[in-house]
Specification:
CATH class of one domain: Alpha Beta
CATH topology of one domain: Aminopeptidase
Structural class: alpha/beta
Radius of gyration: 32 Å
Shape: globular
Largest sheet: 8 strands, mixed
Number of helices: 29
């Protein structure tokens, strides 16, 4: 719903240019010239009291003089005039403007004045401080760029005007076209999330390119990006990859979770393919627009040059791709058609004098191999064969860029003739790249995209059934620390907190003196071979830094001596530190266990993030960690583990059995759940977490809280991804049949075909306000892939069969004040009260979510729906703008 009124900017029929000028070299003159010379076929009205005519068109002195409200305003006037112009346009009936003018800042108050002027009209502002926008399909170039863009299927959203001009220039050289180009500027109102929502539904846009510098509203961005990426490729560059991470951190996680790692994790979770260069941006767009994601990329390489093939293999492996192992039958087939000197392996080197027929035979054989997922076909220029003829031979084998359903990517190296070959291939729908590393990297886009799509389709629960937890016990620990004004929990407190969330910890006895430490050790040694003595201090977070840990203690006397030694070390290294005593624990000895770290920190943009990797005292030096956004589930936890080197060790090697991956996933889910439940947690380390075939155990834990936020209830509002609202599940009975009414999930996509098959055409017409025979997959994805923030849907499931019986939906406006509802119950189950139950659930949810009013648009002939709305307190009246349609509204007092 953040697209409200943005359609006037995306598809304008008329444009008014404020500040249009005849002064050569001025921005007003450049913008006006670009619009006129670009061939925009709608009305173009210059507005400037200094002129009677600009660019051969009548110039108007003020907004009130315009013939009627323009669809789009383009504002290039001094900063102090902008709020007034926005107000005038809103009063006239215009609902969108591009503010090219710079200098509207929070400091001078003009930014807020502009937004205040726009608010009464839901007037949308692109900018200020923007290059403008281009809509090539309608020949609109409303900006001061140096050249227009060609029409095509790519949309570009950029927070940098300079990047826009550079990409437009590059695209012109490479015959690349655009559906929309938007320079977002300072994003006072419209931001990247808003435009992503719009472009997700735009039929002319087949892929979306992003240049990001910052993300002002991360939850809206993640929601919009996830919605768009489910429907079409979204490819992004995020600048500032090497921004220095925070220096001061109370936890290892805070030091290790640098900003760019978090961006990587967020973009991957949103289903966005991230690249790092402008050339890669277009390569990735071309590749992903042609092919579907590849879950696995076993690549067969066909080349007439062995060296080029080796370069491609190197890059392929660097990008985590796989070289296909050719089946014996494939080698036999190639022996028949290739010269004796061919490589007899993959890469399939067909020798420098390869003819078109040889290319054709090799490519067909490679494509037929059952162990091949994709093909990379290469050509090096020689004086013995024609690159263009080879390209034509490969092109004739393909259909939509594929052979037998397998993607074909190509690399024709060289100059003029290679360019001709690449053009032949591209004209046939086969992507072609200039170098082996570009081509091999392009294969990785498909697998990276598949991984992102897999993560995207998961919506973990805010109350995971896999995690047993005791929230009240943890709350009591946090309250005690807050009462004492402490941010850092003691080690026993931290361990008790994580143990309450299914993360195993060893038994701990707190001792206040060396003598007590000896007695505690004696008790533990009755059932353990050795114990550990650790410093207990509220002031010292990293105990090992001051010699506060003594291991392998076998007697009570040695434990007492170790405690005294720790006291002396603390007195020497940190004489002012508060020392509470000692923590005595069994010495956990697991010969083949791996030391792991689990942690949490807060990113300034994306909020809480989770870290996993190789732990121990050298965790920063090893730097083998990966980042994920909570909430997690088993699949997302497994993905996080697999992105580390130690993840491969955990799978087992040589004489070491695989670690208990389920136990590690449970620990990660427990960490995720405590983050969801407690917004007060600032940082956390569990290091080391020992993991082996028998499970996991946390030997140390460190938790930092915000004492002032302990009473803030969950789910954590700082999460960039809102968790699945499991608390809204309920059972319902109707005429002896049991139903489960719960929030909809992405997996419910599979329920729709059977559901719609049991809904009559008449009920479909009443629900969708018109006849509809087909429900495309893209539409069904939109219906099931929700962010649970701006949109909500409940599905009623038959308890016995799990079949969908009815669905109710809410969609909120941008201000989260008004929500539109819709209902559909299976035709064979109507009259049993399911519609009533679903609508009541929507009302309860809207009230709890702070929505002020619910509205429903209902055909006036739909008496059943209108009657139910009236019974539940809705006010029903004829729609003011649409005949034959009624509007049902319900105000929710107090919201």
């Amino acid at each position: 719903m953040t697209v409200r009124n943005l359609e006037f900017a995306a598809h304008p029929g008329s444009v008014a240019v404020y500040g249009a000028s005849t002064r050569e070299g001025s921005v007003g003159a450049t913008v006006m010239r670009n619009i006129v010379e670009g061939g925009f076929e709608g009305e173009i009205w210059p507005v400037n009291p200094k002129y009677r005519e600009v660019a051969g068109r009548r110039c108007y002195a003020r907004t009130s003089a315009l013939p009627y409200a323009p669809d789009l305003g383009v504002i290039v006037t001094p900063p102090e005039t902008v709020p007034g112009i926005v107000r005038e346009l809103g009063e006239k009936g215009t609902r969108a403007a591009v503010v090219i003018t710079a200098g509207l800042t929070a400091g001078n108050g003009l930014r807020q004045a502009m937004l205040d002027a726009a608010k009464p009209y839901l007037f949308r502002i692109i900018g200020p401080n923007t290059l403008g926008l281009m809509i090539p399909p309608v020949k609109l170039n409303a900006g001061f760029g140096h050249m227009p863009a060609q029409p095509g299927g790519l949309a570009l959203l950029s927070q940098s005007g300079a990047i826009v001009t550079s990409l437009v220039d590059w695209a012109a050289e490479n015959n690349v076209g655009f559906s929309q180009i938007v320079s977002l500027g300072d994003m006072a109102d419209v931001d990247v999330g808003d435009y992503l929502d719009l472009l997700a539904r735009d039929g002319k846009t087949r892929a979306i390119l992003l240049y990001l510098e910052t993300i002002p509203n991360p939850r809206k961005f993640m929601s919009a990006a996830r919605a768009a990426a489910r429907l079409k490729p979204v490819i992004a560059i995020k600048s500032g990859r090497h921004e220095q991470a925070a220096k001061a951190a109370a936890t290892h996680t805070g030091a290790l979770s640098g900003a760019d790692r978090v961006v990587d994790a967020a973009l991957a979770r949103a289903g966005i393919l991230r690249v790092h260069g402008l050339g890669e941006l277009f390569d990735a767009a071309e590749t992903t627009a042609l092919f579907r994601p590849l879950q696995r990329s076993r690549v067969a390489i066909v080349t007439n040059g062995g060296g080029a093939g080796v370069l491609a293999v190197d890059q392929l492996i660097d990008c985590k791709g796989e070289l296909a192992e050719l089946a014996p039958a494939t080698i036999e087939r190639l022996d028949v058609s290739l010269p004796p000197t061919w490589s007899r392996a993959n890469p399939i080197d067909i020798i420098g004098d390869a003819t078109p027929e040889r290319y054709r035979a090799a490519v067909e054989a490679a494509a037929a191999d059952p162990g091949t997922d994709a093909l990379l076909v290469m050509n090096c220029p020689t004086g013995l064969a024609s690159p263009t003829e080879a390209a034509a031979a490969v092109a004739t084998l393909t259909k939509n860029g594929m052979i037998g359903g397998k993607p074909v990517l190509t690399c024709w190296l060289g100059g003029r003739t290679a360019r001709q070959g690449r053009q032949i291939l591209q004209d046939a729908g086969v992507p072609s790249y200039e170098t082996p590393d570009y081509a091999a990297t392009a294969v990785s886009y498909l697998t990276d995209w598949a991984r992102a799509q897999t993560a995207l389709m998961r919506v973990p629960s805010s109350r995971s059934e896999d995690v047993a937890c005791d929230r009240e016990a943890v709350l009591a620990i946090f309250r005690q620390a807050a009462k004492e004004g402490r941010r850092m929990l003691t080690e026993p407190e931290a361990k008790a907190a994580i143990a309450a969330y299914s993360i195993p910890v060893p038994e701990t006895i707190v001792a206040r003196s060396p003598a007590e430490a000896g007695r505690a050790a004696a008790r533990l040694l009755e059932r353990n071979r050795k114990v550990v003595v650790k410093l207990l201090s509220k002031a010292i977070s990293h105990k090992s830094d001051v010699g506060g840990v003594v291991l392998d203690i076998e007697t009570a006397a040695t434990a007492e001596e170790a405690a005294g030694l720790i006291r002396s070390r603390v007195a020497s290294h940190a004489p002012d530190a508060d020392m509470e005593g000692y923590a005595i624990q069994p010495m956990i000895a697991r010969k083949h266990a791996q030391e792991l770290i689990l942690g949490m920190s807060r990113d300034p943009i994306f909020g809480p993030v989770i870290l996993f990797g190789a732990g121990g005292v050298a965790v920063e030096v090893m730097d083998d960690t990966a980042i994920a956004l909570p909430p997690l589930d088993d699949v997302l936890a497994g993905d996080l583990i697999s992105r580390t080197r130690i993840g491969r060790l955990l799978a087992g090697f040589r004489d070491r059995k695989p670690a208990n991956m389920g136990a590690i996933a449970t620990a990660l889910n427990g960490l995720s759940q405590i983050i969801v439940d407690f917004p007060c947690i600032v940082g956390m380390d569990i290091n080391p977490l020992l993991a082996d075939v028998d499970g996991v155990i946390a030997l140390d834990a460190r938790v930092e809280i915000d004492p002032g936020a302990v009473e803030t209830p969950g789910p954590n509002p700082g999460l960039a991804i809102r968790p699945y609202p499991a608390g809204w599940e309920q059972e319902h009975s109707a005429k002896g049949v049991r139903y489960l009414i719960r929030p909809i999930k992405p997996a419910d996509f599979a329920l729709y075909p059977d559901f719609f098959a049991k809904v009559s055409p008449e009920d479909i017409r009443l629900r969708f306000l018109g006849a509809r025979k087909q429900f495309p997959d893209d539409m069904l994805k939109r219906l099931t892939q929700l962010d649970y923030d701006r949109e909500m849907a409940f599905v009623a499931l038959e308890a016995d069969s799990g079949a969908a019986a009815g669905i109710g939906r809410l969609a909120c406006d941008p201000d989260h004040e008004v929500a539109e509802y819709a209902l559909l119950v299976r035709s064979d189950l109507q009259g049993q009260g399911l519609g009533w139950a679903l609508l009541k659930r929507l009302i309860d949810y809207a009230r709890a979510d702070g929505i002020s009013r619910i509205e429903g648009i209902i055909l006036s002939e739909n008496e059943k729906m209108l009657g139910m709305a009236r019974e539940l307190g809705f006010v029903v009246r004829h729609h003011a703008d649409e005949g034959g349609v009624s509007l049902a509204t319900l105000d929710l007092p107090g919201n």
